[in-house]
Specification:
The complex is a heterodimer of chains A (198) and B (980). Chain A has 198 residues and is an alpha+beta fold. Chain A has seven helices and six strands. In chain A, the strands form three sheets. Chain A has a two-stranded antiparallel ribbon. In chain A, strands 2-3 form a two-stranded antiparallel sheet. The model of chain A has no long low-confidence stretch (mean pLDDT 94). The radius of gyration of chain B is 27 Å and the shape is globular. By secondary structure, chain B is of the alpha/beta class. The chains are: A alpha+beta (198), B alpha/beta (980).
Chain lengths: 198, 980
């Protein structure tokens, strides 16, 4: 069985935000919720790098470890999903997440948080695959359709890779060997406790 | 712990959920994937990935209730890369977007705009029905009322002030067919003042490049950059403006370990990926290029054989270059000599090398000269006409290349025929209208202010007024405007009002117009500036995603886009609106003589066929709608790098993707198109060619024809002039013409058959025969390093009108005042006054502008898209850390940016960054809806205001025009910045 991961090649990422709007488009994500975003470090300086970030679907996900209602679960494809029926919007997962992935809609006038929302790796939630209930709560389920997350599929420079861990690691490795440089599989150590060795 | 439920054997698409209860026709998953053509593409992208979910999905074979999904392909409208957009449509609603894996150009990918393009069509903020302004209030009207009132008003204005007093501003978002139709409408109306966005983006490229080697377009392609070993990106930030092109650029950089050099005033997102970044002062491109050539000539790195065989006038360049010693270059541009030497050596020696440029090069008073210098750098190093080389010019809109080609230009009829009598007669033959009738449509211009009068014929052959100066032609005293009267009415199709410099002047002009018509999916800045109270109409036009037609990408490939969904709300497509106008004006029967019109909507296919029948000069003759549609169906057959389909492929075998023009002869002879211009290593039937012999055969005793150079398999093994029937006869090749071809040529030639040239031969016979003999009908000439017909035949440095270095003006002044395009260009006086008044003291910071990735052009459309608007919510100015420190400006605070003309000022947020060098500020040009501190949101018709509004940079940009094309100067002016 595949182990799905994201890998952002920061030597390719140009901060074009296609991943961000592809996600909005695919899941009709409302204003104010960003399941994916692009972060730039050393902006305007030599050494500037941009990285596309979302839920990395960690091994032994810290969000799941802190959730008081145990709403997280990991699918057979190693995607970390959650149940909005169980979520109480407490925000613990936000503090636990090393990537700042969890998002909360503001539901009341006093800043009260709604159910947590995050990247689903385009694979929906606990409801039946491709059901209306699933779509309404979590957005599209591309994995069930035999497709990969749209953010990676539409990445302008093919910096953001999604797919089976071994396969995307292999693609990245070949790239680094061919071009002679690579700043590493960003976030992998934190998320997966491993890195791509070249 | 929950477990993911995987027992829902439902292999339904997401649309079954979306459309539950709406549809009855059953579609199972397999059928869906097969129909959509996505199964193979989607999986191919990741190899033979084994997924639990995928297995399950493909195993599910039973039919379940689902939506009938139709896949439609169109082209993204947001830049010139030409990304295919794959839309999933259910019951006439665009419900999803999928990666376009098969397109050799974008290979599934998009940028932020392309990935959000579905929202463009849905947008609730679109203009929904025709409206007019009555005493400052927007009122809904019907299409009938709108067309009738507009028609009556422009006819009355024409009666009173002449045809030239109505200005026709077209769009780079038009399809090729709509562009052509708009130019034809201008011709039938009787004016040459028909323009579009190319004026303000790459008009100088077109003029500079065409004057060098024949055609004004990108010589190679985005894909071909993969072959380059050195690439210089100068005056461009494709990571923002053309993100998908970076896929090819970065792949080339990685695969060839290529040098990627970015020459720019800003450390851009593109520069972040460069192997070398050269920071220059805005407006000093020519000294930088001459500085490079100084090292190249000094060290003998130039390609002497290439120059001998294929270039005219390089010795004249050497004389100018000799003045640009490393010291002088550093003094003027700020670039250290040793860095430039390193760059020059890479460009000359690590070949093939390509020079990529964009609006940082073109939008200057010296735009045409800049472009010419860039071309000369390519010529001197032999970097033209081969894979991995060339002038890779990145244009800005979907179809800005096509709209330029099809004549939305004040200097020419469609396809660069110009405005001479022969050009008008050619198109009159194609249109099957009387030349005399066309002539009768034009004004007679009286003699005014010491200028000569113009007869109707002379006026018909005189270039119109450029879009950069329409408001000058309203505001200036009538005796200064060289036509029957100034401009009284603007017909604006698909064109923002905030992309032209000097907005305070434009506002004055708007308020004086007798009629303003804006035909667009959005109201645009024209509506929001609150300059008018009456006689203003808004016509809702559908997006180009809602209409059929072809688009020409920057690399000259034509792609057929199909209507994804029917025009939303009450909007109509461009074709229909132009037809309705022509009908109202009384010449629809003449204008649509050979074009099928169905329920007021002209057929895009028939329009393209008419273009094919007349498009010989530029090779728009071979791309029939049938061939283009076959290309869209067979996208996956084309090679990623060569863009060619294998010869044995049905329908498209041997073709280059999109039949990049020139695609010679009639469609039946199946010319493959031209991937790389001027490539002598290929047979002309395989897309090979030579530099165009369009400037004569000899000058000052030197030949202008190529020497010892010719395309592969040519029967003429040296330079040769362009072909006419006379030349064909001399060679005895006229007997290869068929009887039909000969009859057509004879009919065109009348009593001078020998003078019929390859470009006006409607039979295509001359082209066909030439191709059979392995020669190119446009001749085999030399490229010109010296373009003697231009104001500066050899490019020379000229300081910007508003320069931060007034001490350099004496040595490098702008060109003298002169009349151009019916108006005075007083750049010299403005520069002199700025120096005399020491403007640089009060306005010490250089202001330059550019593009963001989220928005495009004037930005009305993209700022109305919440998926994009959320990412850029404020207009801002990039200020260098040191400049900000001196002024007590903190990152994120409000500041005033003050311009040196009209007391203009804009209120924007400060982005304090070292991305810009000290003394340089940068602003994006996509914002509008605020004007000099005031929020103008209430002036939009209710519900049509974009999500994000902001000040337009062009409120503070200033005077300055290129002498060849009237290009504006938004890339190098001055400003002052203060905390607000």
């Amino acid at each position: 069985m595949a182990r799905m991961k994201f890998l952002c090649d920061s030597d390719r990422c140009i901060d074009c935000n296609a991943c961000v709007t592809a996600c909005k488009n695919e899941h009709e994500v409302p204003w104010g919720i960003n399941r994916r975003r692009v972060v730039t470090i050393n902006d305007g300086q030599p050494g500037e790098r941009s990285i596309s970030m979302a839920c990395m679907h960690c091994t032994d996900a810290p969000c799941a470890a802190v959730c008081p209602v145990d709403c997280f679960y990991t699918t057979a494809d190693a995607v970390v999903l959650h149940s909005k029926d169980l979520c109480i919007g407490c925000g613990y997962c936000f503090y636990a997440c090393p990537f700042g992935a969890p998002q909360y809609p503001r539901v009341g006038n006093f800043g009260s948080r709604g159910k947590m929302d995050k990247c689903t790796y385009c694979s929906g939630g606990p409801e039946a695959d491709l059901s209306e209930a699933e779509y309404v709560k979590y957005g599209a389920n591309r994995l069930a359709e035999g497709k990969l997350p749209l953010c990676a599929e539409m990445c302008s420079t093919k910096a953001l890779l999604a797919g089976d861990s071994d396969m995307i690691a292999q693609i990245y490795k070949e790239r680094v060997i061919k071009r002679g440089y690579g700043s590493g599989a960003w976030g992998w150590k934190t998320a997966y406790r491993e890195t791509v060795s070249i | 712990m929950l477990t993911k439920r995987r027992n829902g054997e439902v292999g339904r698409s997401k649309f079954s959920a979306l459309t539950a209860g709406l549809v009855s026709e059953a579609v199972d998953r397999r059928t869906f994937l097969r129909r959509s053509g996505l199964a193979a593409g989607g999986l191919a992208a990741v190899g033979s990935l084994q997924l639990g979910a995928v297995k399950k999905a493909s195993a599910a074979g039973t039919a379940v209730s689902g939506a009938d999904v139709v896949i439609k392909k169109n082209i993204c409208t947001h830049c010139s890369v030409g990304c295919t957009v794959t839309a999933e449509v259910v019951n006439g609603v665009w419900v999803g977007q999928e990666p376009s894996w098969e397109s050799p150009i974008n290979r599934g990918t998009h940028c932020a705009k392309g990935a959000a393009i579905r929202e463009l069509v849905h947008s609730e903020r679109r203009l929904k029905y025709p409206m007019k302004l009555v005493d400052g209030q927007w009122q809904r009207i019907s299409w009938d009322t709108a067309i009738n009132e507009i028609g009556d008003k422009i006819s009355a204005i024409r009666e009173k002030a002449g045809a030239d007093s109505v200005y026709w501003l077209g769009s780079a978002k038009f399809t090729n067919e709509a562009s052509y139709l708009f130019r034809k409408l201008g011709a039938f109306w009787g004016t040459n003042s028909v323009d579009h966005q190319a004026r303000i983006c790459h008009s100088t490229t077109v003029a500079g490049v065409a004057n060098t080697w024949g055609y004004g377009a990108q010589t190679n392609s985005y894909n071909d950059i993969r072959n380059a070993k050195t690439m210089i990106i100068m005056g461009g930030n494709p990571a923002r403006a053309h993100p998908v092109s970076l896929q090819h650029v970065l792949s080339g950089k990685e695969l060839n370990r290529a040098n990627m050099i970015v020459i720019e005033p800003r450390f851009t997102r593109t520069a972040a990926h460069a192997t070398e970044f050269v920071r220059i002062r805005p407006g000093t491109d020519i000294p930088v290029i001459w500085g490079m050539l100084w090292h190249i000539f000094q060290n003998g790195w130039e390609d002497k054989e290439f120059i001998r065989k294929r270039v005219y006038g390089m010795d004249d360049v050497r004389k100018e270059v000799a003045k640009w010693t490393p010291d002088e270059v550093e003094r003027v541009t700020g670039v250290p000599g040793d860095q430039l030497k390193r760059v020059a050596e890479m460009f000359a020696k690590d070949r093939p090398s390509t020079l990529i440029w964009c609006m940082g090069a073109t939008q200057h008073t010296v735009g045409t000269a800049n472009v010419r210098a860039f071309c000369i750098a390519c010529l001197a190093t032999g970097n033209v006409g081969a894979p991995g080389t060339g002038a890779n010019i990145f244009r800005g809109h979907t179809n800005v290349q096509g709209a330029t080609d099809l004549g939305l230009d004040v200097t020419t009829l469609p396809l660069y025929y110009g405005l001479v009598e022969g050009a008008w007669k050619h198109w009159a033959r194609v249109w099957e209208v009387e030349y005399d009738w066309l002539q009768s449509r034009f004004d007679e211009v009286p003699a005014v202010a010491g200028r000569k009068p113009r007869s109707r014929k002379e006026n018909m052959e005189a270039p119109g007024i450029t879009s950069t100066r329409w408001f000058d032609a309203v505001n200036l005293p009538e005796d200064q405007v060289d036509q029957r009267a100034g401009i009284k009415a603007m017909m604006v199709f698909g064109h923002g009002g905030n992309t032209v410099t000097r907005i305070p002047e434009a506002v004055k002009g708007m308020s004086k117009l007798e009629l303003l018509v804006v035909a667009d999916p959005h109201p645009t800045t024209f509506a929001a500036l609150n300059a008018r109270r009456d006689n203003t109409y808004l016509l809702p036009i559908c997006t180009s995603l809602e209409m059929d037609g072809s688009r020409t990408a920057s690399n000259r490939s034509l792609q057929w886009g199909e209507q994804i969904v029917k025009p939303a709300f009450e909007s109509k497509n461009d074709y229909e609106v132009m037809y309705l106008l022509a009908k109202k004006l009384g010449f629809a029967d003449k204008m649509f003589k050979n074009i099928k019109v169905d329920n007021n909507v002209p057929s895009a296919e028939d329009l393209l066929r008419e273009i094919n029948r007349g498009g010989w000069s530029t090779g728009y003759c071979g791309q029939s709608p049938e061939r283009l549609k076959a290309h869209m169906k067979n996208q996956s057959k084309f090679d990623l790098v060569t863009l060619r389909a294998p010869k044995d492929t049905p329908d498209v075998g041997g073709d280059y993707y999109g039949l990049p023009w020139p695609c010679w002869g009639k469609p039946q002879i199946r010319h493959p198109g031209t991937h790389i211009l001027y490539n002598t290593n290929l047979h002309v039937k395989d897309g090979g060619s030579t530099f165009r012999a369009r400037f004569g055969t000899e000058r000052n005793g030197q030949t202008l024809l190529a020497e010892d150079s010719y395309s592969l398999g040519s029967e003429l093994t040296d330079g040769y002039p362009e072909f006419t029937m006379g030349v064909l006869k001399k060679l005895g090749w006229d007997k290869d013409l068929t009887a039909d071809e000969l009859a057509t040529i004879t009919k065109i030639g009348g009593n001078n058959v020998d003078a019929v040239s390859w470009a006006i031969d409607l039979s295509g016979g001359i082209q066909r025969v030439c191709l059979d003999h392995g020669v190119i009908h446009y001749g085999n000439g030399k490229a010109r390093a010296n373009a003697w017909n231009l104001p500066d035949p050899i490019p020379v440095h000229r300081e910007p009108i508003y320069t931060p270095r007034p001490e350099l003006v004496a040595k490098y002044p702008t060109r003298p005042d002169e009349r151009q395009f019916r108006l005075p260009n007083i750049g010299f006086s403005v520069q002199k006054s700025a120096v005399d008044r020491n403007i640089a003291k009060d306005f010490p910071i250089i202001l330059t502008s550019g593009r963001l990735v989220e928005y495009e052009g004037g930005g009305e459309e993209t700022r109305s898209n919440p998926w994009l608007a959320e990412l850029q919510q404020d207009m801002f100015v990039e200020v260098n850390t040191a400049d900000a420190g001196e002024r007590g400006i903190k990152d994120g605070q409000w500041v005033w940016v003050l311009g040196p003309e009209d007391g203009a000022k804009v209120k924007v947020k400060a982005l304090v960054t070292d991305r810009v060098g000290r003394g340089v500020a940068w602003m994006p040009f996509h914002f509008s809806g605020w004007y000099q501190g005031a929020d103008m949101r209430s002036y939009y018709p209710p519900g049509t205001d974009p999500v994000v509004l902001g000040e337009s940079v062009n409120t503070v940009t200033t005077y300055g025009f290129d002498p060849v094309t009237g290009m504006q100067e938004p890339k190098a002016t001055l400003c002052q910045i203060r905390a607000a």
